[in-house]
Structure formats: C-alpha cells, structure tokens
Design a protein that fits this description.
There is one protein chain. The protein is α/β, with parallel strands linked by helices. The chain has 10 helices and 12 strands. The protein has helices spanning 7-19, 22-28, 33-47, 63-90, 103-120, 133-142, 203-214, 228-236, 246-253, 284-297, and strands spanning 52-55, 58-61, 95-101, 124-130, 147-151, 160-174, 184-185, 195-198, 221-225, 242-245, 258-263, 269-276. The strands form 3 sheets. Strands 3, 4, 5, 6, 7, 10, 11 and 12 form an 8-stranded mixed β-sheet that branches. Strands 1-2 form a two-stranded antiparallel sheet. It has a two-stranded parallel sheet with strand order 8-9. It is globular, with a radius of gyration of 23 Å.
Length: 310
C-alpha cells in the first residue's frame, strides 16, 4: 500500500480527536467545514478504511482512527522538536535534551547531576519537566521526551528501561500527632486526618489523590505548599500530616520535630527507572547524561566528559 500523508491532514485529524467535533476542528486548522470534511474523506479513501464514527453529538474514533492518531502525534511532535533544534543551532546552541521525571527525582536526585552535565556541556540545553510516571512513559513513546525517569509501577513495555534509584514514600507527622506513635500504617488509615500537600500540579499530589480516589475517599487537604521543606515545616507546626519521599523526609526530620512512619502499601516502595525509546539512537550528549544519572544512582562519580556532538 503506497500512502502519502499530508501534514495538514495529520494536524486536522489530531484536532478532530481532541474536539470530537469536525466543525471546531476545522476552525482550529483554519479550514472551512466542507474542506475539512473533504480532507477526511480523501484520507479514508486513501487508507481504505473508515476512521471516524459520525454521531449526532459529534464524531468518535474507530480503531484505525486511534492508530492514525497515535502516529500523527508522534510525527507532529518530532517535527516540532526538529524545528526547535534547528532554531537553537541558528542561535549557537548545538543540542537539546528533553527530560521528564516524577516529583521525587526532580527534587531529590536530578539537580546536582543536571548541574554537572550542563557545566560540562556548555552548548547543550535541557528541558526538565515534572510529570506523572504514566504520562512520562507516553511522552517518551510519542517522542515528546527524550529521557524519562519513572516509578517501576508503570508499564514501560516497548521502551528501554534502566535501573536508577530506590526510594520509599513515608508518612510524616508532628511528634504530638496521634499517628506519630505508629510503627507502620496503611494509607487508608491516614485519610481521616488533615493533610499538608504539595501543589496540585505536582506529580506526587496527583499520585496520592488517585490513590485516595481508588479507595473512594478524598484527601482532606488543609493547606498546599510548594516544596518538601515547606511540607515538613507545616507538619512540625501541627497543621496536618504529609506523605513524601523518605530521602527528603529524613533530611528535614534532622532539624524539625517530626516523626516518620512506614507505609505498608506496596506502592510506597518504589524503584525509579530511566527509560528511553532507543538508547543507541539518542545523540551522544543525551547518552552521556544517562551515563551520569546511572553513575549517580550507583553512588559513583560521573563518567569522564564526552565531547558533545550530534
């Protein structure tokens, strides 16, 4: 089958999937409704299958349409990355690495490694974003992230995954809180108490909210703050309890009057993984960042600097 895809068609199809409405999708693509409808019709004729279900409330994707959407997003994402990389070449930057990681990795582990990497690669930029682990896996699969750092509780099938670090989520409570005397607790037993939480945009907040929703219980959030240090200070002031990575909790417990309680839930013990689509296809400087992360995870010094190149 000889297929030729028009980028306008691919972008239009993504808009249709996002809007579930051909009229709104056409407007986003700056096309008239008849022109957009004709493009979809020609696309279906070229492929030989129906891509959409036309319904009274709009449109929905058929299985072939979902497959096309998956690949269309990859293609458009790669083109956007190409445009950005070429623009950076014009501005004197020789490389760009897109990294997505969960809250623990970003706040506890990555900063010193990334600092050393950027110092040794002055002509490389990085884009570091905090995301939920399952969103990171999707981003790496779709090519919108080069490197992902995720908890091993998510499915990384189809990606190359390498061990990075181990960490555990623990409950932190003030020394005067009733839960501070416990040796271990199930997460469900904490939901009767007020919480100090990170902001809603943080991956760890979303993870805990999902865990509570699975129990059909809400998180009773008394206040939200922007850092693990702020969480621990509010806990020490008896505002509420909190759940955070053990590495961060122990560091702040050394100077604050808080107690740490083990969570008995399986998801509390987490192995972090570095995941990529295909290691050998990454630029040398991106592979060097991965080598530095792996060395840091093993408690070793960073490997010798490799000359950055594409």
């Amino acid at each position: 089958m000889a297929l030729h895809f028009d980028l306008v068609d691919l972008r239009l199809f993504v808009f249709i999937a996002e809007e579930s409405n051909l009229t709104r999708a056409a407007a986003r693509a700056h096309l008239s409704l008849p022109a957009a409808s004709m493009r979809v019709k020609h696309l279906e004729q070229a492929i030989g299958v129906k891509l959409l279900n036309r319904e009274s409330q709009g449109v929905s994707l058929r299985p072939p349409g979902r497959t096309l959407l998956h690949h269309a997003r990859k293609v458009l994402g790669q083109l956007e990355s190409l445009r950005g990389d070429l623009q950076e070449y014009a501005e004197g930057v020789k490389g760009h690495v897109r990294v997505q990681a969960n809250t623990t990795a970003i706040t506890e582990f990555i900063p010193p490694v990334l600092s050393a990497f950027l110092l040794s690669h002055p002509d490389v930029n990085t884009d570091l974003r905090e995301r939920l682990s399952h969103d990171i896996v999707r981003a790496v699969n779709e090519g919108t992230a080069d490197i992902g750092i995720v908890a091993d509780s998510v499915d990384t099938a189809g990606l190359q995954a390498m061990p990075y670090r181990q960490d555990r989520l623990v409950l932190a409570a003030s020394a005067r809180h009733p839960l501070a005397r416990k040796r271990a607790l199930d997460f469900a037993a904490t939901l009767d108490y007020d919480y100090v939480a990170l902001h809603e945009g943080s991956a760890i907040h979303s993870f805990l909210a999902q865990a509570a929703a699975q129990l059909r219980r809400p998180l009773k959030i008394r206040t939200q703050v922007s850092s693990f240090e702020a969480v621990c200070r509010m806990i020490a002031a008896d505002v509420g309890i909190g759940i955070l990575p053990e590495s961060a909790a122990r560091r702040h417990a050394a100077s604050l009057d808080i107690r740490l309680v083990r969570l008995s839930n399986d998801w509390a013990a987490r192995n972090l993984l570095i995941c990529v689509r295909e290691l050998d296809s990454l630029p040398l400087f991106a592979r060097h960042l991965i080598a530095m992360l792996e060395a840091d995870g093993r408690g070793e010094a960073s490997p010798p600097r490799a000359r950055p190149q594409r």
